[in-house]
Hints:
By secondary structure, the protein is mostly helical. The chain has helices spanning 2-19, 34-58, 68-88, 90-93, 96-119, 129-150.
Amino acid sequence: MNRSLSWVFAVGYVLVHYLWPIRHGEGDIMSMDPIPRIFFMTSFVWMSAHVWVAWRMYGPPKLRVKTLKDFYVLDASLVLLVTTPIFSIPALGASPLLMIIAWPPLAAHLALNVWFLCGRARTPLFRTTPFRIGMVGLWMAWVAGAAIRSFPHV
Length: 154
C-alpha cells in the first residue's frame, strides 16, 4: 500500500504544478484553490507516514551509507526534514537558494522510486539498466517541468 500511495502522491505533485499556477513563496496553503490545498495538506500527513513505514521496513537512516537502500532511506528523511519545510513555508519557498537546496533530495528520491519500480517489474526488458535509465530520464524531465513552473520569481 505504501508504494501505491507514493505513486498517487508523486504524480499528484507534478500534476498540481502543471494544472495550477502555483509558485513557491506566493501566498500560503490556505489561499490556494481547494484541490491543491487539500492535496498538499493530505500529502504532508501521508509523507510523514511514508517515512515511518520506510524506517520500519529498512531501519532508521544510517549516516554511513553502504547500499542504495541505505541512501534511499536517508534521502526519504531528508525530503521530510529539508524539502518539505522549504516547500511548505512560504517565506522559505520564496528563496531561490533554499529551493535549490530543497530540490536535490526530492529529485534523488523520485529518481530512485522509478529505478526500483522498474526493478520490480515482471517483464525482463523493464528491469534492464538502459530501460531503467530511460524511464528515470523521462520521469525526471516531467518533474523538472513542474519544478520550473513552481520556482519562485527571481
